[in-house]
Design brief:
CATH architecture: Alpha-Beta Barrel
Number of strands: 12
Structural class: alpha/beta
CATH topology: TIM Barrel
Strand order of the largest sheet: 1-2-3-4-5-8-9-12
Distance between the termini: 38 Å
Order of helices and strands: HEHHEHEHEHEEEHEHHEEEHEH
Largest sheet: 8 strands, parallel, barrel
Strand content: 15-25%
Radius of gyration: 17 Å
Helix content: 25-40%
């Protein structure tokens, strides 16, 4: 069985460049332009990739973000399936362990952004570890430039652990080149860590690459511990995160892409992503 831990363990161009504009839309993005992180439908998509992609597009999603469990399939084949479904694929997730070998694959897939899903959780326990991650992110950022892409990192809650008064995220931001290393902010994990997504967006507005939208059930304490005790997922629009305000701020900042994701669902994933999409249309329309 595929798990996020196994995906992450398996394994940017400067945004001012003409080939990679900061704003990917001629006009501000609309609610119907939301994409889906395909990890959400991992239980179905491995068995029937074309069918699930078609269902995702039928719900209304316009793009998808691929995930590490899909890359046993040739990039050309996967891209054709995504194209045939009428979807775009501007962003790709890869695991930390094999990220350095995936640039050719991402380029063939047609991605604008290569995103590392997480640092190794078992190592994310010290300031020195986050400095090491930052060095690696800078290197990958330089490599992404050579391929005409942009590099970004996706957060969980572990990046908000504090080390002598600095969080792991603050260390990453201080130790990486802002022209090479961008941030795909996951609003759920920011909230789960006890932080405010809006405040994070304002603080790091020039570093925000894309956003993950997933919602959080009420009644659970925040934490920076990885694992089941931090997993309180629910469909977007049925939890506690204020996505209308986040959306308004993101539009003002020119954030180009938004991906719905839900790591675990209590109902069939395709039903879950439809609820999230329909709620977003009502909330943001």
């Amino acid at each position: 069985m595929f798990t996020r831990r196994s995906f992450l363990a398996a394994g940017a161009a400067a945004l001012g460049m003409p080939s990679l504009p900061r704003f990917a839309f001629a006009t501000p993005p609309q609610p119907q332009a939301f994409g889906l992180q395909l990890y959400t439908v991992r239980k179905d998509i491995q068995a029937d990739t074309p069918g699930v992609l078609t269902a995702v597009r039928k719900i209304g999603y316009r793009s998808v973000e691929t995930f590490a469990g899909q890359y046993s399939r040739p990039a050309k084949e996967l891209k054709q399936m995504i194209d045939d479904a009428g979807l775009g694929s501007p962003s790709t997730h890869f695991g930390y362990g094999d990220f350095g070998s995936r640039f050719d694959y991402a380029k063939e897939l047609g991605a604008k952004y290569m995103v590392v899903g997480a640092p190794p959780f078992q190592k994310a326990t010290s300031a020195d570890a986050f400095k090491e991650f930052a060095t690696q992110y800078n290197q990958w950022g330089e490599q992404a430039v050579k391929y005409g892409m942009a590099f970004g990192f996706h957060n969980h809650n572990v990046e908000f652990r504090s080390f002598d008064g600095l969080s792991g995220l603050e260390i990453l931001m201080r130790e990486t080149d802002p022209k090479l290393v961008k941030w795909q902010m996951d609003c759920y994990w920011v909230t789960q860590a006890g932080q405010d997504p809006l405040a994070m967006m304002q603080k790091y507005r020039e570093r925000i690459q894309t956003l993950h939208f997933k919602d959080r059930l009420p009644g659970f304490p925040p934490s920076t511990v990885e694992g089941a005790a931090s997993q309180h997922f629910t469909e977007v629009g049925t939890g506690t995160i204020q996505y209308k305000a986040i959306w308004n701020a993101a539009q003002a900042m020119g954030v180009p892409y938004f991906f719905v994701e839900q790591d675990q669902t209590t109902i069939p994933p395709l039903q879950s992503i439809k609820i999230s999409y329909d709620n977003l249309k009502k909330l943001l329309g």
